[in-house]
Amino acid sequence: MRKVAVVGIGCTKLGEHWEKSLRDLSTESGALALKDAQVEGKEIEALFIGNMSAGRFVGQEHLAALAAEQAGLNPIPATRCEAACASGALAFARACSSIQAGEHDIVVAAGAEKMTDLKGTDAISTLMGAGDQEWESSMGLTFAGLYALMARAYMKKYGLTREELALVPVKNHHHGMNNPYAQFHMEIDVEKVKRSSMIADPLRLLDCSPITDGAATIILASEEAAKRFKNPVWVRGIGQASDTLALHNRADITYIAAAEHAAKKALQQAGIGIGKINVAEVHDCFSIAEILAYEAIGLAERGKSKDLLNNKETTIGGRIPVNTDGGLKMGHPVGASGIKQIVEIVKQIRGEAGNQVKGCDYGLAHSVGGSGATCVVSVFGKEEPE
Amino acid sequence: MRKVAVVGIGCTKLGEHWEKSLRDLSTESGALALKDAQVEGKEIEALFIGNMSAGRFVGQEHLAALAAEQAGLNPIPATRCEAACASGALAFARACSSIQAGEHDIVVAAGAEKMTDLKGTDAISTLMGAGDQEWESSMGLTFAGLYALMARAYMKKYGLTREELALVPVKNHHHGMNNPYAQFHMEIDVEKVKRSSMIADPLRLLDCSPITDGAATIILASEEAAKRFKNPVWVRGIGQASDTLALHNRADITYIAAAEHAAKKALQQAGIGIGKINVAEVHDCFSIAEILAYEAIGLAERGKSKDLLNNKETTIGGRIPVNTDGGLKMGHPVGASGIKQIVEIVKQIRGEAGNQVKGCDYGLAHSVGGSGATCVVSVFGKEEPE
């Protein structure tokens, strides 16, 4: 397989962009990535874009061709990938595959979602398109409800307290203070989480990622093409796995099996253990999700994530900082989040992050679609693989 | 690049399946393909599925994981690809790429769409998600309207008559008589087309492909894995290209530039000229689309397609039969159509088609998304490439 490097990154501000459309956002992040890589549009050979639900959010399918047109990239091939909130990570995986297959040398992998400007729908029911329509959405379940079920089961099984659960958003809000793209810049504490509005017991408002407009783009190059770029960050491994869409079809809802499969494969491909990873971006759509992520990627044994949180091991300055940009808590434009995570990992490995981890050689991104029916884990490294 | 072969095919009956859901249809076509290939589910390493708009049609995104679950394929990676009516063709292209990259040896490429069982939407506005939402859909344009504009411009420029335009559906209904999956089994004539209801002048009801539920699946194998299969049909070339989403942004609406780019690339990769192709499936969502397809893939010079139709050269028994299964006129489950076309080409090359072309060594499939913003052209051959 040919090696692949990330040679450019771009991300819009995350938030409510009432003055910008979906096409504006995707073009903005694309232009930032081209500038960062110092490549011209005419050198881009293909475009892959992750988007979950523009069809429902803004009435627009066929988004890849639109993004290519808007960026002046026609007639290059343009492909949209979708697996709910893991859509961006899928676009990244397919972009890498196209380089490994020898189809292309320089490609764009992007993600975009416009979630605030709704036409005849609401965000909650649109997001439930990620769950099982026949058995979950139609019964009135919401995503906060699904993750609340997982949180309750986990708390009962492993004795995680309400206070320990709150340590996740407290950390991520703290990290977000140094992220210029973050949707919020506000420190919170455990008491504030506990006093925020109840959404789906035990999850409260501050346990939930926000509704976000945003886009992120990375530029990928083959090993031959990467030689001319000054700051290549190498793709060392990618794992992707699937599981049942509906939560009730899983044997145990206190862990995410697909994430464990994906992490195992990605680390195996990278040829390293989790102990070598210096920084990770994980899918914290709800507080409980970050806890499940620790255990899926192997940072903690099942039920032991609370130790990492209580000891601040995943806070900047700790042993293995997680979500150094604040994670999805600081903005979750669903189809873009998988790419946004990679932007932060690349910044860390380059040494350009807002909350810089010292001596960052390896980073990991962990993206989840729905309640865990799709997971993608990717490993990045400073050194070119052998 | 590793070689890829199609080793199994399956297609549901196309039509109104009031008693079957989207998941039922995808599983049915998958089971047929597994049986045809004589492989077991546990040998499938990845799944790619094309679907245009299940989010709006039935409230379900995240379809690839659902299809994998329903077929008992978890935890394999499952990816949905979307580019409107070319979604199936995109899933096929990404599935091939994953084999060429060395990721996998045996993968499924499928397409599925459930268009009749609508929840809070209508098919016409949902299908306009393939066009430009800001500049076409929001102004009230429909897809019949867009293709009507193209038809009018073409008729004026090249002197195509209403009667000549009708020869496309007359031929395709004739071909459909021998297609067991066809949504309709009824011969029509030019007069019947001319007397059918006006949809968007000059296009009448019988110029339009129907609203269809259906799914199609093919199984792909690497050259090493293909050795054990008895009837491999080889992928010889794939071309994909993009163009502007909105019709008003194109220099000329009497041809589809992306289809020309895609066809050129696919034939170049196959190392053959269009003259070698014995059968083609082209995207005839409206009568005019088949005419534009002839010219895009090089069967006729611009403006000369009427000669092919008047001389019955594209009818079974003619020089280069096109849409021998009746094309999309016999059923257009939008996200599945790109795979359904490949099913027919594979049957032709195997010698198993309803309207069999004699001595069929090479076949071509041509798939269009929207009014031509995405096009994928693929070439298949009986002989393994060198």
Key attributes of the depicted protein:
2 domains; nine-stranded mixed β-sheet; globular; 13 helices; Peroxisomal Thiolase, Chain A, domain 1; homodimer; two-stranded antiparallel ribbon; 386 residues; 11 strands
Which spans of chain A have pLDDT < 50 for at least 5 consecutive residues? none
CATH architecture of the largest domain in chain A: 3-Layer(aba) Sandwich
In round numbers, the mean pLDDT of chain A is 97
How many beta-strand segments of chain A?
A: 11
Q: What quaternary form is this?
A: homodimer
Describe the structure.
Two copies of one chain form a homodimer. Chain A is of the alpha/beta class and 386 residues long. Chain A folds into two domains: 4-121 and 211-226, Peroxisomal Thiolase, Chain A, domain 1; 141-210 and 234-381, Peroxisomal Thiolase, Chain A, domain 1. Chain A is 34% helix and 18% strand. Chain A contains 13 helices and eleven strands. Chain A has helices spanning 22-37, 54-57, 63-70, 87-100, 123-127, 143-158, 162-176, 190-195, 223-226, 257-270, 287-297, 305-310, 337-350; strands spanning 4-11, 46-50, 78-82, 106-113, 198-200, 203-204, 214-222, 233-242, 279-281, 362-369, 374-381. In chain A, the strands form two sheets. A nine-stranded mixed beta sheet of chain A has the order 3-2-4-7-1-8-11-10-9, with helices on both faces. In chain A, strands 5-6 form a two-stranded antiparallel sheet. In chain A, helix 4 (87-100) crosses helix 13 (337-350), helix 7 (162-176) crosses helix 11 (287-297) and helix 10 (257-270) crosses helix 11 (287-297). The first copy, chain A, is globular, with a radius of gyration of 19 Å. The mean pLDDT of chain A is 97. The interface between A and B is large, with 65 and 65 residues. Strand 3 (78-82) of chain A pairs antiparallel with strand 3 of chain B.
